[in-house]
Structure formats: C-alpha cells, structure tokens
Amino acid sequence: MAKLKDLEKKQQKVEQELEKAKIGLEKAKKLVKKKEEELKFLNADLISSLLVENDMTMSELTAMFSENNGRIDSKESMVQEEFVHETIITTNES
Predict the structure, then answer these.
(1) Vertex 91, ends 90 and 94: CA angle to 5°?
(2) What is the pLDDT along the chain (94 residues), one digit of tens a residue?
(3) pTM here?
(4) Nearest to 57 by CA among 68, 66, 48, 65
(5) CA-wise closest residue to 57 among 43, 67, 72, 47
(6) Distance between CA 45 and CA 59 in Å, rounded?
C-alpha cells in the first residue's frame, strides 16, 4: 500500500508540474507573438526613417530592389555557367 500511495503522490506532483509547464508555455507563446509584432513595427519604422532621410518614395525603393535582384540573378547565372563549363572540361580531360 505504501508503494501505491507513493506512486499516487508522484503522479499528482507530475500532473501539477505539467500544468505549470503548460501555463509557462502559453506565456512564452504570447511573449514570442508580442516580440514578433514589436519587431515588425520597428522594421517598418526603420524603413520609413530611411526613406525620409534619403528623400525616397516607396516606389523608388521597390525599383532599387528590383534592379539589385536582377544583378544578383545574372551573377548567379554566370557562376552556374562557369561551373558547368569547368565540369565539362574536367570530364573531357579524364
């Protein structure tokens, strides 16, 4: 009987710990959501400040990113072409 009572006490303790952990998890989830929203607002403020400081519109910023993205894509294509060319040369030499 003593073993049964010990196991029941242990079970109750673990159940209580589980409840505390669930409450802690919910609090942590709320904190994460709050911090994600706070970060989004800070990022928006940062972008707004950069636009004002550089006397730019949102359209100009979008166009600038589009131009840079095209440059990156063409650089990636060149690197891929060079890799394929080197692979073909290496294979032919073997």
Answers:
(1) 90
(2) 788 999 999 999 999 999 999 999 999 999 999 999 999 999 999 988 988 998 988 888 888 888 777 665 555 555 555 655 555 555 555 4
(3) 0.56
(4) 48
(5) 47
(6) 17
